[in-house]
Amino acid sequence: MELTLEHVSKKYKENDVVKDVNVSLKPGVHALLGANGSGKTTLMRLICGLLKGEGSIHFDDIDASLEYENFASHIGYMPQNFGYYPHYTLKEFLDYMAIVKNLNKDYSEKRILSLVKELGLENQLNKKMKTLSGGMLRRVGIIQALLSEPEILILDEPTAGLDPKERIVFRNLIASLSQSTIILLSTHIVSDIESIADDILIMKEGEIIMHGIYEDLIKVIKGKVWEVLVPKQDASSLMKRYRVVKNHNQNNGVYMRIVSDLKPHDEAIAVIPDLDDLYLYYFVEEVAYD
Fold first, then answer.
1. Exposure pattern of 40-73 as b/e (b: 16+ CB <10 Å)?
2. Which of 34, 41, 102, 112 has CB atoms 3.0–4.6 Å from 203's, for a disulfide?
3. The organism sits in which domain of life (predicted)?
4. 40 & 161 share domain
5. CA separation (Å) from 105 to 93, 101, 127, 266?
6. CATH number for the domain including 24?
7. Of 197, 218, 239, which marks where a domain is finished?
8. Is residue 233 part of a domain?
9. Burial status of residue 258 (CB atoms within 10 A of its CB: 0-12, 13-18, 19 or more)
10. How many domains does the chain divide into?
């Protein structure tokens, strides 16, 4: 089972939003990381067939451009913001989504009850959608994407708004699906990526600039991450000259974690890099994840 993208591109007017993406994904969890405007959501919408672009997308021997309905039947998609009818109860909304997905009624009833229980929403079935919290709505979005037991699961910021306990439930659910499902998710929560991703795709200005497992990706910045404790009067100068991942005041100075090709301070010590460091190394001008 394999999802293959070849020369996938998308332009808006003269702007290349997605540029010549070539990637093959097999069952497992693939995390898509990039800054705001890097093209992540556009790429996901291209895969789902919600946007038309250049290039080809295949699921095994199914060509998405020639057999879209067949291709789409294998996909579950959770957009970053999904629409719903606010006056529907949760049960009515999920029943409606099951009809849209052309699911058998007996099957969908069992599937809905199983998923709402797994995601802790069984007590909300008769509540109107408009009364659900943001975290609950994210869980509803995940449930509707999973209704048809898709072989390809596309999740755009699935953990946004979830509290730590809800994120643990989500991670366990995704881990249970990863052996038999191709899962592509975007998230700005590094702990989610480090906990569940089999590999990471880093997207910048519409291109996949890196793709690999966590351990291999951070090797790129080995020897480029430093920690140092400096007098308070020196901290401001370092912040202006270097990419500072973390800094906080201590009684005897300011602790700083810095990403730099060169040693930023005589007292700086090289440390083991992590995903935050990698992100800042490639997206120095960005202040937040998408």
1. bbbbbbbbbbebebebebbbeebebeeeeeebbe
2. 34
3. Bacteria
4. yes
5. 14, 11, 21, 69
6. 3.40.50.300
7. 218
8. yes
9. buried
10. 2
Domain that holds residue 155: 3-218
Rounded Cα–Cα distance for residues 11 and 231 (Å): 49
- Does 210 share its domain with 236? no
pLDDT tens sequence across 86-125: 999 999 999 999 999 999 999 999 999 999 999 999 999 9
For the chain, strand residue ranges (E) read: 3-12, 15-25, 28-34, 54-59, 62-63, 75-78, 152-156, 182-186, 199-204, 207-212, 225-230, 243-250, 253-259, 269-270
Residue 285 has a pLDDT of 55
Q: Mark whether 208 and 229 lie in a shared domain.
A: no
**87/152 same-domain check:** yes
Q: What is the crossing angle of helices 105-118 and 90-100, to 10°? A: 130
- Positive/negative CA dihedral, 90, 96, 102, 104: positive
Q: Are strands 207-212 and 199-204 parallel, antiparallel or unpaired?
A: antiparallel
Identity of residue 127:
K
Which is more confidently placed, 14 or 133? 133
Domain co-membership, 198 together with 265? no
On the question of pLDDT at 6 being above 60, the answer is yes
Q: For position 165, what pLDDT does the model report? A: 85
Both 7 and 28 in one domain: the answer is: yes
